[in-house]
Design brief:
Blueprint lengths: L8 E6 L4 H16 L6 E6 L4 H7 L6 E6 L2 E7 L4 H12 L3 H12 L17 H9 L10 H9 L2 E5 L4 E3 L7 E7 L2 E5 L2 E6 L4 E2 L13 E4 L3 E7 H10 L1 H23 L1
Parallel strand pairs: 1-2
Antiparallel strand pairs: 1-3, 3-4, 5-12, 6-11, 7-10, 7-12, 8-9, 8-11
Length: 265
């Protein structure tokens, strides 16, 4: 299925008997109505009535919300989400001007303190191919086959951040892995700088596994392009393909063994 319209298009995959879908559908429809001036339109596809469309959209769960802009996929939200989460992911691509997007977010959520990533040019040209190359260098994914990496890549969202934005706060519960594609960040622990991150660096690997509080804070030093993987999406993948978990365990075991050898040495 090729969605080639110039205006933004939201494709939503639903199962009419699913409670999460019944919850999400009105939220997405409301978001489309509230942002009608951007030209955004919406089409919904039922997993039972339109299986061919589901296969072409590569929707492995429901509900799934996919935003296309200029014929290219820009946002994919797999599973349920709140209105706040929908708006934070969708508005930067519905409004080309970041100030307008931020203003709309504040208006629709009535929250003056809300922040929003800046809309920037698309980072990845050939979506999964480029993502696979980036993810291959992430330590916990390094032992995976290209086929497994392709599955992980489908759940890696392209996102943008602005200078001064905190991607992680020490002590807060972590639920995402971030990979820096363009830009830089500083890592602080108890207020002290302990590292700087640049293109190719990632953080939050263990958040995908244990969801424990962040051990340090990470702040962007400049406007940046990132890949993000949410723990909920990763849990779904591991349930569908248990081999992913086994391949990650191989890497974690190797890293623990190397750490032990350093301590002994």
């Amino acid at each position: 299925m090729e969605i080639t319209q110039d205006h933004p298009v939201i494709a939503m995959v639903v199962d009419k008997g699913c409670k999460e879908c019944d919850f999400m559908l009105p939220l997405v429809e409301e978001t489309v109505r509230e942002n009608a001036t951007t030209g955004v339109t919406m089409s919904s596809f039922d997993v039972w009535d339109e299986p061919e469309a589901i296969v072409e959209l590569q929707a492995t769960t429901h509900p799934t919300v996919i935003l296309f802009v200029g014929g290219h996929e820009r946002v994919r939200i797999a599973g349920s989400a709140t209105k706040r989460q929908l708006l934070r992911k969708l508005l930067p691509y519905l409004h080309a001007d970041p100030d307008t997007a931020l203003g709309e977010l504040r208006r629709q959520l009535d929250n003056p303190g809300e922040t929003l990533p800046t809309h920037r040019r698309p980072l990845l040209g050939s979506r999964n191919t480029d993502k696979i190359a980036l993810l291959r260098d992430v330590p916990i994914f390094s032992a995976m086959s290209k086929r497994r990496l392709a599955m992980v890549a489908r759940y890696a969202d392209e996102t943008a951040g602005v200078a001064g934005q905190f991607l992680a706060t020490e002590g807060d519960v972590g639920d995402q892995l971030f990979l820096i594609c363009e830009g830089s960040a500083v890592v602080r622990k108890q207020g002290e700088e302990i590292a700087k991150l640049g293109p190719g660096d990632c953080f939050g690997e263990m958040a995908l596994i244990d969801g424990e509080p962040r051990s340090a804070s990470v702040e962007l030093l400049e406007d940046s392009q990132l890949l993000a993987i949410h723990r909920r999406d990763f849990d779904f993948m591991m349930k569908q393909v248990p081999d992913i978990a086994r391949e990650m365990l191989v890497v974690l075991s190797r890293r623990l063994r190397e750490a032990d050898e350093k301590l002994v040495g």
